[in-house]
């Protein structure tokens, strides 16, 4: 059952993945971590040992690799003997790493949709542009590829599947992501600013009345009164999981709502309107060609640096409506995470924590065979119950409000009895 | 009396200078214009001919020159036979051009204080850091150098001198610059964004109680009720003229107030707090070294491009208080300019117009001998009356509110009788 795991990436999420793999290395076996900058990998391994996170004796080795080089990644998979690759590098490398897995037979797990540097917000459903084109290759080779296995996408897809499994018919899925934490900086993004801003500069696609609809960012907003964090303003945003859930549940309306404070919106609006969030190069008066978004990223705090002072909680969940035994039914399936707890456990803030724990749970389910699908799957195509059971144990417990927002609060396992 | 003039620079202000020189080439003689990009100079000359701006027959020739190369500028002065250099290039080249004038004996006129690319907001008085160190060299060589002869600094220095000349004792000089115009863009600066932002990112120095005092930008604001433009919020800002007026009139408090709308302040605050207005390089994740401010500049509209759609008016003036015959006396000396009128006359917006007309008036006074000081002078050290007479005629009439703001409105010439 010990599989040998290769982690790709060395950012804030990789830090969490590394700690969580170490805490579960009895299931996952020897561990490897690789990124462009090997020293970042070494620092992560050092922090794992500092926390005494390795559950049983085992290896944890750092490597340098250019993850856009399929051959190099494939060679590293062969060299390390990795049977599971958890890819939490930048989203620009995803298809390169997946191709390396297909070439070597290793299982592939990622947490975000593939992105091409010079394109933003392509035709929906997004997964059809890159990932799903490789589904047949996975099936032919018997390669397990689990797409979007972070929190959102990832856990929220499992929340949707879980809720839908309790119904005869699903009508709508509204995913709501509220970070009520505070990092104390003038402005910072909670993960790679480049990826963060790219999420919000394009068209907001959502699925309603069995068709793709479009909004601009911040065009549609409402206040959601969520458990623990309380009433919070959230805006319809483009997000990966809408693009698989809409395909798998075309009868349901599928929307994603991200919480934003007025300050974030103001900063975002200024930067966007001036053109500073553009992924297209501009030329300075001195003739230097520069991509503005990369300069904004260089000016902003490193998301990993926010962790020590981050306080407060996140609440992310799915409000799912449908019909059961002829009656309307509503469920809110959710998790609350705490920034400070995350930092104390793995040295990261809560956003990295919620994104980094789920792919490790997915890797454990691949290792145990429960999710070893031998083909490509989005998370809603897999049984959510073993996933929830693991997440309950390793730090992201799933809860349910029976009757929807304001309803009776219980553990998911109590709900299903 | 025909002197031959060399204009350095090819931006929005240079466009105005070129047109105004052409309109007065009976006094100024043959005209030359030089910048790094010769084609920009050719475009300006073409616009001069298009408007039929040349008053009498005469030459107007474009040149390419690197204005940071003192030898190259000196060679161009010799080659053209220029006796007057109007330097409206970027403020980074000022001392290079001045050195070329000192080397060749040509008169030098500029409109802004010299800046070094990597330094912002140096020790007050600013003129002592670069310009005044060359005063003795000017005197020895008999070179006329008129510093800061735009509108502010420039005309406002003459306004101060004029008002002080009406008093026995001066107590305070408050210079107020309100642009009540509208360019219709989300955000734009009225002149080179790099220079514009650099004005406001450093310490705000002002002179009070015979000592230099310091503020942060937007720390001190008040509403000024000015002629034509009406009540306008303005904030104490660092500005060149404070640094010469305080030295020449140490008994007076000297403050500069710049009008800003809430939108400008918001955009400025966001960009500054994120670090995007920094003149110090940052390194992107890809290893590219970039100066953020230069990227912001590349994203913003070219100030010259604002001209066709710019509407509204500017009001810039000096409120000067003092004592005359034992009584307190107050004068507001000012000009109102119109963006649309400026565009129709010379193809530029009002801010470029107010900055570009005065150095041409100064050049004409050097040509006629009235301001041919044979040494280095700030504008307040020169007789303001011939300057006002010329400005009245060539587009920037001077008016006076007797008794200060809200007082009786009259032409300066009526005030002196």
TrEMBL record, chains A, B:
The residues covered by the Saccharopine dehydrogenase NADP binding domain are 5-146
Superkingdom of this entry's organism?
Bacteria
Q: What is this protein called?
A: Saccharopine dehydrogenase
Gene source species: Marivita lacus
- Report domain Saccharopine dehydrogenase-like C-terminal positions: 150-395
């Amino acid at each position: 059952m010990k599989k040998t795991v290769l982690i790709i990436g060395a950012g804030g999420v990789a830090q969490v993945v590394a700690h969580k793999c170490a805490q579960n290395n009895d299931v996952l076996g020897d561990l490897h971590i690789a990124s462009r900058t090997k020293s970042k990998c070494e620092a992560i391994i050092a922090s794992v040992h500092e926390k005494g996170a390795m559950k049983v004796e085992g290896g944890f080795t750092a490597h340098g690799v250019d993850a856009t080089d399929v051959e190099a990644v494939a060679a590293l998979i062969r060299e390390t003997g990795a049977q599971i690759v958890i890819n939490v590098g930048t989203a620009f490398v995803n298809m390169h790493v997946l191709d390396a897995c297909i070439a070597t037979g290793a299982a592939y797990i990622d947490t975000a949709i593939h992105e091409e540097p010079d394109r933003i917000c392509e035709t929906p459903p997004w997964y059809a542009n890159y990932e799903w084109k490789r589904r047949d290759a996975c099936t032919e080779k018997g390669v397990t590829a689990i797409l979007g296995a972070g929190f959102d996408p990832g856990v929220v897809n499992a929340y949707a599947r879980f809720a839908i499994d309790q119904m005869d018919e699903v009508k709508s899925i509204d995913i709501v992501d509220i970070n009520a934490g505070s990092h104390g900086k003038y402005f910072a993004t909670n993960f790679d600013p480049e990826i963060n801003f790219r999420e919000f500069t394009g068209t907001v696609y959502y699925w309603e009345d069995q068709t793709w609809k479009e909004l601009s960012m911040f065009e549609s907003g409402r206040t959601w009164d969520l458990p623990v964090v309380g009433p919070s303003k959230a805006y319809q945003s483009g997000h990966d999981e809408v693009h698989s859930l809409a395909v798998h549940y075309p009868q349901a309306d599928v929307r994603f709502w991200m919480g934003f404070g007025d300050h974030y919106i103001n900063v975002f609006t200024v930067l966007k309107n001036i053109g500073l969030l553009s992924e297209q190069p501009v030329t300075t008066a001195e003739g230097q060609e520069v991509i503005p978004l990369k300069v904004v990223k260089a000016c902003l705090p490193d998301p990993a640096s926010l962790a020590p002072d981050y306080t407060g909680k996140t609440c992310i969940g799915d409000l799912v409506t449908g019909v059961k035994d002829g009656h309307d039914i509503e469920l809110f399936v959710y998790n609350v995470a705490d920034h400070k707890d995350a930092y104390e456990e793995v040295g990261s803030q809560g956003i990295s924590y919620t994104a980094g724990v789920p792919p490790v749970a997915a890797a454990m389910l691949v290792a145990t065979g429960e999710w070893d699908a031998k083909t490509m799957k989005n998370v809603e195509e897999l049984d959510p119950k073993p996933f929830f059971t693991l997440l309950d144990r390793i730090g992201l417990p799933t809860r349910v409000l029976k009757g929807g927002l304001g309803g009776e609060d219980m553990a998911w396992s109590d709900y299903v009895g």
